[in-house]
Amino acid sequence: MSLGFVVTYNSFTIELAFLLVAIILLLIVSGLISGSEIAYFSLTLSDKNKLNKKNTKSGVEAVRLLSKSDYLLSTILFARGILNVAVVILSAYIINSIVDFGQTPILGFVCQIVVIALFLLLFGQIIPRILAAHYPVKFVLFMAIPLSLLVKVFRPLSYLLIRSSRLFGKRILRRSIHNISMNDLSDAIDIAEPKSQENRSILKGIVEFVNTEASEIMTPRLDVVGVDISANYDALKKVVLESGYSRILAYDDSLDNVKGILYIKDLLPYLDEKSSFRWASLIRTPYFVPENKKINDLLEEFQTKKIHLAVVVDEYGGTCGIVSLEDILEEIVGEISDESDYDEEKDYVKLDENTYLFEGKTLLNDFVKVFEEAEDVFAEVKGEAETLAGLLLEIKGDFLQKGEELVYGGFTFKVDSIEKRRIKKVKVTIQNKDEEE
């Protein structure tokens, strides 16, 4: 059965061989330029800092190109467009010279499109872009000098393009500013040199603030002080005196059934009341938040509702802990101490230059503030842990015994004391580099 068309093949001449070599070279150059777009415009602030430290000619040129990103981008677009057009024309010429589709020009046209598009996408776009994304700094340095020459060649055309797009410049600028990620800001703080470590800590706290959840900074359930709503007034006053807190939870039967929050100042007019005094009438309506609540949103709600304490609940409605306005502010400015804070209540004590004694309930957020390098070290292993004790359980995958030691990420952890299966204190030792080796 005849398909209705005849295809004939012509001989491959030396002229076509030279044109094929030219196409290969054009594809390579087009791929390098296409990869440059990804490499230059996906650099992180850390990558740019590395380039600034390069004293080589390519390093200097790369920094100069980045300072004129509008000219760089327009040059890449012009050069890539011209190269791709040249590849298409030469490829079509070679295909038509080798293959004669006779009475089926449409078939020939479709074949040319498929073959040319495949090679352009594969070798001119996909492969170089993947390489550039994996090795952006190396790619930038390799292409710095060639691109500098191209920028000079296409400068007149680039100037016209940039001038004509000025109307859209402000909108593009605003969009680029809004697209700066928190990681970029964090990198910028690491690169910069604040006048003091305190300033750096505050800046880092502000950047990380929007990504922090209530469960990460809350006082856990086991440490929450509360009183049963059925307790008499004398029992309540005893709890208040022993805790020293200005606010405590009032619950019915268990902490999973919180009825309200008692402000101790509300008791002042009734200090001389008898044991039968109905103090429960003074409790205020509790404010409940989910454990994944972002603390920047919670801070705004605290300000709007003029409250200072919220009860954190899990997906089943059970009480996980409490979070206060002070807890949130401490994420920005660091530890806030007042007259009710005693030395013995600190989360840790420094025993010597490399050894610390921590409370097992110390939040991981607070732990990494003491050892800044610990944030990256424990990022992968911490899992759902929110406290130092939880971190040790994640590392071992089982319960620990008193005196047991764990070594991880340049730190030695020794369980100093345990109370009712709960790790109370942990001795943390920073390993010397000699010991690590």
From TrEMBL:
Cellular compartments annotated: Cell membrane
SMART domains linked to this entry: CorC_HlyC
Gene3D superfamilies recorded: 3.30.465.10, CBS-domain
Gene Ontology CC: plasma membrane
CDD domains registered for this protein in UniProt: CBS_pair_CorC_HlyC_assoc
CBS domain segment(s): 218-277, 282-339
Source organism, top-level taxon: Bacteria
MF-aspect GO terms: flavin adenine dinucleotide binding
InterPro entries, sorted: CBS_dom, CBS_dom_sf, CNNM, FAD-bd_PCMH-like_sf, FAD-bd_PCMH_sub2, Ion_transp-like_CBS, Motility-assoc_prot_GldE, Transptr-assoc_dom
A Pfam family it matches: CorC_HlyC
Membrane association type: Multi-pass membrane protein
Keywords carried by this UniProt record: CBS domain, Cell membrane, Membrane, Repeat, Transmembrane, Transmembrane helix
Matches recorded under PANTHER family: HEMOLYSIN-RELATED, UPF0053 INNER MEMBRANE PROTEIN YFJD
Listed NCBIfam families: GldE
Similarity annotation: Belongs to the UPF0053 family.
Name assigned to this protein: Gliding motility-associated protein GldE
